[in-house]
Amino acid sequence: MHVALRVTDLTKTFGRGKKYEVQAVRGVSFGVKNGEIVGLLGPNGAGKTTTIKCILGLMLPTRGQIEVMGYDFHRQYRQLVRSTSAVLEGSRNLYWRLSPRENLDFFTGLHGIPLALSRPYSEHLLRVFGLEVKKDAVVQELSSGMKQKVAVACALALRTPVVFLDEPTLGLDVETSYELRDILKRLAREEGRTLVMSSHDMDVIQDVCERVIIIKDGSIIVDDRVDNLLEVFRTRSYRFTLSNGPGLDWHFDLGKKFPGLTVIPQGESMILEVTLPRPSDLYAFMDALRDQGLIVEGIHQEEPDLEKAFLYLVRKGA
């Protein structure tokens, strides 16, 4: 399978002089294969948006190499830009006084696609996104969910091999969010599109993406398949029910030994949620509870999800 996107040693520094320099992206390197759906994750200020804008050519990198479909950022900039499309600001990218169909015609026209070639696929997208009934309505009169669908459709209408979607389900209700997820997976599968998604909604990333890249402080700390991460955390997340504990200071000492410990009071009992890096840590944790005079009523192995894995990895840094 060919590589659709390759980023090597991407670095972006803002400001001049050592005193004022801020390094937003630090030597980021990764590749994305044709037809792959990848999630680009990280806390606020991690460098995700800067990375995306550099790849799209909206921002000049300080150092590094970017290739999209084999086109080099520095030598073949025009071809590279024409190989990508994006939804970065959601429905704010649209012209609200135009209809969905007019928006699609406008943006494909800007991309140099003749109307005779763009219109059939635009009509197809309107049907796929459930917008056919509203295709001639003014965008500003549509619901927020429909506006978001139109924005994504406009990016896909350009038929670029690589598409970036920043918070594609932002503001959508649950039903519309699931509809959009299914549409993206189907289009990637049927048309071989390469999708790079950035979102704070871990349920969306877990459902749609095959792989995640997690950035923290401008550097990649994790690049792995979603199912691999979930499998690792499946054997490490536990939920303990204690019959005593409230009112004591034991959890401060316990939290120092086992970072990421969550304490949930429940009347006279207590719930502890903890992720243990090694299997042997379970015995050490049980010994620590016993040393504190705590009585364990039950142990439940937590079913992992991407949100818990993400929080643990970001806090630990790897």
Describe this structure in words.
The chain has a six-stranded mixed β-sheet, sandwiched between helices. The chain has a four-stranded antiparallel β-sheet with strand order 2-1-4-5. It has two domains: 3-226, P-loop containing nucleotide triphosphate hydrolases (Rossmann fold); 235-316, Alpha-Beta Plaits (2-Layer Sandwich). The relative contact order is 0.13. Helix 3 (100-110) packs across helix 4 (115-128), helix 3 packs parallel to helix 5 and helix 4 (115-128) runs antiparallel to helix 5 (144-157). The protein contains eleven helices and 14 strands. The longest helix has 18 residues, at 174-191. With 318 residues, the chain is α/β, with parallel strands linked by helices.
Task: For the structure shown, list the relevant keywords.
37% helix; four-stranded antiparallel β-sheet; Rossmann fold; 318 residues; 14 strands; alpha/beta; 2 domains; single chain; Alpha-Beta Plaits; six-stranded mixed β-sheet
What order do the SSEs take from the amino end to the carboxyl end, as H and E? EEEHEEHEHHHEHEHEEHEHEEHEH
| Class from secondary-structure proportions | alpha/beta
- Largest sheet geometry: 6 strands, mixed
Text of the CATH class of the largest domain: Alpha Beta
N/C terminus separation: 28 Å
Low-confidence stretches are none
Quote the CATH topology of the largest domain.
Answer: Rossmann fold
For the record, the count of structural domains works out to 2
Query: CATH homologous superfamily of the largest domain - what is it?
Result: P-loop containing nucleotide triphosphate hydrolases
SS field, number of helical segments: 11
Helix content: 25-40%
- Overall mean pLDDT stands at 89
- The CATH architecture classification of the largest domain is 3-Layer(aba) Sandwich
Number of β-strand runs: 14
Rounded to the nearest angstrom, the radius of gyration is 23 Å
Q: What is the overall silhouette?
A: globular
Percent of sequence in beta strands: 25-35%
The neighbouring-strand order within the major sheet is 6-7-8-3-9-10
